[in-house]
Amino acid sequence: MVSRAAIIIAGGQGSRLGGIDKPQLSINGLSMRARVAGAAIAALGLPCRIVVVGADGSDLRAAPFTIDGVETIRTLEEPRFSGPVAGLAAAVDELSDLGGEADVLVLGGDMPTLSAELLQHVLGEGADGSAPADSTAVRGIEDSSGHLQFLCAAWPLGVLRTTLNEVRGNGGDWMGLSLRRLYGQLAPARLTIRPALDGVDDAVSDVDTAEDLQRARIAVERTTP
Question: CA–CA separation, 213 vs 188, rounded Å?
Answer without folding.
Answer: 34
